[in-house]
C-alpha cells in the first residue's frame, strides 16, 4: 500500500485513499510498537472525524501495518502523570471520534494489540487478525486498569469469564484463541491480514451506505437498551429505509435478476 497521503508531514497516522470508497488508516510509530501517545490519538480522532463526514468513503480499514497493531497507551507518557493531568487530557474525546464513526470500520491486526491497542481494535465493527496477532489487556500488570473500554467492550464481546481471565491476569491471547472466544471475526495468514480487510471493506463499500449506517447504529445500541426498545429502534430504522432510492434499487435489481447499482440516496 502507498500511505503517502498523510494528514501532515510528521503524522503518526497515515491514510491511503487509493481504493475507491475505502480509506485505509494506518498507525505508524514503529519505534514504540505503535504505542498510542496523545499525538497518535489526536491524529486518529482527526482522521475518523474527517472520514465520518466524507461522502465518498463508505468503509474504513484500521491497521498498524504488517508487524504490530498497537502495544497500548504510551507508558512513558503516563508514568509520572497525576490523576488531574490524566483527567484533563480528556482522551475520551479522541476515542469518541472513532466509536461514533457511522461508517463500517474493519480492524486489520497483526502482532500485538495490547491494552489501549486491544481497546482500539474493539472500537472496530469487524476484527481480522493475522495468525501472529496477540491480544491482551495487561494494564493490571502496570498498576492500572483499562481506560478505553477494556472492562466494558471486552466483557460484552467475550463474556464474563474470558474477559475476567484476560483482565485479571493480563494474559496474552493468540489469534486462534481470540477467534474462539469471539474477540476476532476472522483469522488469516499474516501476509493476508490487510488484504483480507481491504477486500471485505471493498465489498461492504458496494452495499447501500444509508442502510449500512442504520445497521451499525441500531446494532450497537443493542448492547445498551432493553430488548423491546431495541426491537422498536430496529423496526423504525427498517421502515425508514423504505424512503431510500437504494431500497427500491435493491428490490428491483433482485426482481429483474440484475446487479444492483446503489447511489447512496
Ligand atoms: N508505551 C511506550 N513505549 C512502548 C510501549 C508502550 N506501551 N510498548 C513498547 N514500547 C517501546 C519500548 O519501550 C521499546 O522502546 P525502546 O527501544 O526505546 O526501549 C520499543 O517500543 C520496543 O519495545 P520492546 O523492546 O519491549 O519490544 P519487545 O518485542 O521485546 O516487546 C511488547 C513488545 C511485548 C509489546 C512490550 O514492548 C510490552 O510489553 N509493551 C507494553 C505493553 C503494555 O503493557 N501495554 C499496556 C499499556 S497500559 C494501557 O494501554 C492503558 C490503556 C488506557 C487507556 C487507553 C489509552 C490509549
Automatic annotation (TrEMBL):
A single GO BP: fatty acid beta-oxidation
Keywords: Lyase
SUPFAM superfamilies: ClpP/crotonase
PROSITE patterns: ENOYL_COA_HYDRATASE
InterPro entries: ClpP/crotonase-like_dom_sf, Enoyl-CoA_hyd/isom_CS, Enoyl-CoA_hydra/iso, Enoyl-CoA_hydra_C
Pfam family, one: ECH_1
A GO molecular-function descriptor: hydro-lyase activity
Family listed: Belongs to the enoyl-CoA hydratase/isomerase family.
Identification of the protein by name: Enoyl-CoA hydratase
Naturally occurring in which organism (per UniProt): Acinetobacter tianfuensis
Amino acid at each position: 500500500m502507498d500511505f503517502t497521503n498523510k494528514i501532515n508531514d510528521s503524522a503518526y497516522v497515515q491514510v491511503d485513499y487509493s481504493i475507491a470508497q475505502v480509506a485505509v488508516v494506518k498507525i505508524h510509530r514503529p519505534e514504540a510498537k505503535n504505542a498510542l501517545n496523545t499525538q497518535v490519538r489526536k491524529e486518529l480522532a482527526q482522521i475518523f472525524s474527517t472520514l465520518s463526514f466524507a461522502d465518498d468513503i463508505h468503509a474504513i480499514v484500521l491497521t498498524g501495518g504488517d508487524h504490530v497493531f498497537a502495544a497500548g497507551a504510551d507508558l512513558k507518557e503516563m508514568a509520572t502523570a497525576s490523576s488531574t493531568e490524566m483527567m484533563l487530557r480528556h482522551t475520551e474525546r479522541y476515542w469518541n471520534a472513532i466509536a461514533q464513526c457511522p461508517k463500517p470500520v474493519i480492524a486489520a491486526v497483526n502482532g500485538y494489540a495490547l491494552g489501549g491497542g486491544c481497546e482500539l481494535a474493539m472500537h472496530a465493527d469487524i476484527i481480522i487478525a493475522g495468525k501472529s496477532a496477540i491480544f491482551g489487556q495487561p494494564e493490571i500488570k502496570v498498576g492500572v486498569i483499562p481506560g478505553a473500554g477494556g472492562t466494558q467492550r471486552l466483557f460484552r464481546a467475550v463474556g464474563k469469564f474470558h474477559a475476567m481471565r484476560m483482565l485479571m491476569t493480563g494474559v496474552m491471547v493468540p489469534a486462534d484463541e481470540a477467534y474462539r472466544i469471539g474477540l476476532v471475526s476472522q483469522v488469516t495468514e499474516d501476509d493476508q491480514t490487510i488484504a483480507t480487510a481491504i477486500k471485505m471493506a471493498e465489498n461492504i463499500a458496494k452495499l447501500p451506505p444509508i442502510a449500512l449506517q442504520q445497521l451499525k447504529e441500531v446494532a450497537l445500541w443493542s448492547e445498551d437498551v432493553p430488548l423491546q426498545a431495541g426491537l422498536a429502534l430496529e423496526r423504525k430504522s427498517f421502515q425508514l429505509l423504505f424512503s431510500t432510492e437504494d431500497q427500491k434499487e435493491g428490490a428491483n435489481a433482485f426482481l429483474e435478476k440484475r446487479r444492483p447499482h446503489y447511489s447512496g440516496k
